[in-house]
Each structure stands twice: as C-alpha cells, then as structure tokens.
Design a protein that fits this description.
The chain is elongated and about 60 Å long. 6% of the residues lie in helices and 22% in strands. The longest helix is centred in the C-terminal third of the chain and has 6 residues. It has a ten-stranded parallel beta sheet with strand order 1-2-4-6-8-10-12-14-15-16, with no helix packed on it. A six-stranded parallel beta sheet has the order 3-5-7-9-11-13, with no helix packed on it. It is mainly β and 233 residues long. The chain is built from three helices and 16 strands. It starts with 8 loop residues before the first strand and ends with a strand.
Length: 233
C-alpha cells in the first residue's frame, strides 16, 4: 500500500470498504481527491487517518451508512473545495460541526442526514467561496433574532432546502441571508412549512439569472409575477 503514498486522486466508489480502511492504506499526504461513494461504510467515522489528509481538496462520502457526529479531524482539511456527505445518518447541530472551519468550500452537500440546521445559516459566514449548497431533508432550528439577519460573504448559485422538518412543526421564515444573494440560478424550498408567508418579490428582482425555482407544497403564497426566464414548480 505504500505505492499509494504519492497518489493525488483516489476513486473507490462502489467498493466495499471497512470503516478503518485508512489505517491499512497508510498516510496519504499527497491526496487531493478521495471519492467513497456507496462503499458500504457503516458506523462512526474514526479519527485515525483523516487528520493526515491535509492536502485534500475534494471528499465524497455520500450514500453510505455513516452515523453519529462528524469527526473533529475533518475540520483540519482546510483546503477542501468540495465536500459531499449526503445520504448518511450524521447527527448534531451544524453550527457545532467541523463544517464551520472549512472556509474554502465551493460545494457543500449534507442532504438526507439527521442534522439540526440553524435557519440563519450564519455558521457559514466565513465561507466566501461557497457556490453550491444542499441541505435537504434535515431539521431546521430557529435562533435568536439577532442571529437571523446578517450579510454573507458568499454568492450562491444553487441553494436547496427541500423536505426539511421544523421544531414541533413550527412555521418558518425564509433564511434572511437570501436577501443579499444576487447570482442564484437554482432554488428549492419544496415541502417546507413556511406558514403562508408572501412570496418575496426581492428574490426574483435580485436574481435576474434565476432559472429554476421549486416551491412544491411550501405554503408560500402569491400572487406570483415571475419573469419568463424562470422555470418554477
């Protein structure tokens, strides 16, 4: 396995792996891309091995059975640009996870887990390069009013928040950081209880390149006066 020491890109998708496989491979300090899609990884992600992947830029752990909290070692992977942990069973409040340290991220997906996601998304205040964000099918939690209004450093192109539950079925407002977005192309609020709020006209006015807008059963009320360039459902 020492032959892998200088490998920069490692794709092991659909390969059945043990949760501790990194201990067998050894230290891969040159690795920039690691893809472990659907590798039958079950249980808690161990800390051993992950702390040494400090050159990693892309990490895909999606479609496995990973559980519990994200290991704190992942917070050391500060060069990550793409991080996909969707379709697992991770838990915890996103604001307390290593995700907040990964400020170089451009693409982040933690959809279909058991995370608690603060509705302000202020946890990502320092993620100035973030362009694609997917947090579907988690649990949205409210915060104090002074946390809910803030000006983000990033400009998203894709933001997906579909199928998220709320605390005790409480009704939510739209995340206020969206008011400062001007480059959105895709937006999905489907199946989230927004409690009959009015459609925010500033959203379409601020994002003239918005092409796809999904609000299926989101309880957002109209009337809707949308430009012809938008596909909405």
């Amino acid at each position: 396995m020492h032959l892998l020491r200088n490998v920069e890109d490692l794709y092991l998708d659909y390969t059945r792996l043990d949760i501790n496989f990194l201990q067998s491979i050894g230290i891969l300090t040159s690795l920039k891309t690691l893809s472990l899609y659907n590798c039958d990884l079950y249980g808690t992600l161990p800390a051993h091995g992950w702390c040494y992947l400090k050159s990693l830029e892309e990490l895909c752990l999606n479609q496995n059975g990973l559980q519990e909290a994200i290991t704190s070692c992942l917070g050391n992977l500060t060069f990550l640009r793409l991080f996909d942990i969707s379709n697992n069973q991770f838990i915890g409040n996103v604001a307390s996870t290593p995700l907040t340290n990964l400020s170089k991220l451009q693409y982040l997906s933690f959809s279909n887990n058991y995370f608690q996601v603060p509705v302000s998304f202020k946890s990502f205040a320092n993620h100035s390069d973030l362009k694609f964000h997917f947090s579907d099918q988690n649990k949205l939690v409210e915060e104090p009013i002074d946390f809910q209004t803030w000006s983000p450093r990033f400009q998203l192109k894709v933001f997906s928040l579909s199928n998220c539950t709320t605390e005790e079925d409480r009704k939510l407002q739209l995340p206020n950081f969206l008011y400062y977005q001007h480059d959105l192309r895709y937006l999905d609020f489907s199946y989230v209880n927004f409690g009959g709020i009015r459609f925010p006209y500033w959203l379409k006015e601020n994002n003239t390149r918005l092409k796809q807008l999904y609000m299926i059963e989101s309880s957002i009320e109209g009337p809707l006066f949308l430009p012809l360039h938008i596909t909405w459902r």
